[in-house]
Specification:
single chain; seven-stranded mixed sheet; Dihydrodipicolinate Reductase, domain 2; eight-stranded mixed sheet; alpha/beta; 2 domains
Amino acid sequence: MSPQLTLQTPLELPPSEIPAYLEQLWAKDQPTSQGAHTFCLLVWQPAWVEQQLVRTGRINGPITGVQRDEVITAARQVVSDSDLPLTTPPLTASVGQALGNLNGDEQAEDLRGQHVDASVSTLRPRRLITLAPSLDESHPLETLVAAYCPLPEEGGGTAACGDVVVLRGGHAALTQGLTILQPLLPEDLPSWVWWNGSLDEAPELLERLAIAPRRLIFDSALGQPHHCLNLLRERIEAGQSVNDLNWLRLRGWRETLAMVFDPPQRRNALGHVVQLDIDVEGEHPVQGLLLAAWIADRLGWELGSSEPESNGVITAAFSRSDGASVKMRVAPVSMGQPSIHPGQIVGMRLICQPDHQPAACVILCAESGGCMRLEAGGMASMELIEEVVPVQHSPVEADVARLLEGGHDTTTPLLAAAAPLAAKLLH
């Protein structure tokens, strides 16, 4: 399904006039009014790499904020042209910084906030509010508003409609404009905040946007690993509903591992794990640590010690419920064309040594890489079980739609248990 534009050209209004305009738009005394009674979505959408690609003339506009193939392909070329490590994910800050050093002053229409992805629009949100920071720090605040409805082929026509509000400008201007948000978020509707950027940027702005009871969506693969895990832990411990896209992408790994140990003859082996190895793309270990923490929590292991090494490897020692030791290792692996999501898992190995039974080695690997690297080290003497994990390549907008459709007002208990332990592993 292709993204959609708003039904009308957005109207630019002074910030003070927007609440009254929207109230009139959906006034109850208008018989044609069909404002959706669903939820509000507040989006931080910097799209720094896309803005820089347009500015330098490497792609044509308009700027949409959507992670489309054209943007990803052009960003990968920047990695090569700028002599960045080939393991650099294409949409990260280092690519944006490399583009920032290049000349260019191309202009293009900015449709961030007006370019509603179909996977989101089919959920019929009542209000989409987009904060679209500009590369130009001096850019004054612009506030735009428009009504929109799902297209007829997406179930629209007679469907309930919503509206979009866009705040565009430099960082200081956007910060000043935050005062209009509260009147735009009805108290009788759930509100979600999607931080669609690095967790390292604008922390004070994130703090002001993501206040409880607003439900928070972010990606712990974007930002410094320590900061990502600490923020995840702090928000969960504060009781806020937190939805991590990095955790969502772990679903296939968790389901495949559970399936491997589902046969009755293998279930006993779970109580006799002695070693866990996880390989991740590049230098961002958060997803690997979240998977290790989930396994440890489910199997009742107690953390003894954890030690990051100079080569990016993280090792830890756990104690099983019977007192036996389990060694854990999360290691970086270089990939020639990495995922757009930093630190994705490429393989894992679980070694089990049950009493009076042959040792077993379970190896899971992604479609993008073989299992041979994990087969080294004396595996020939063990029962070898290998599975390929189907990796989902859905757009980030589709992942966000899955979270919105679930509508949870609390953090999933599995993530709530795994996140604090993952933070401890990194420290």
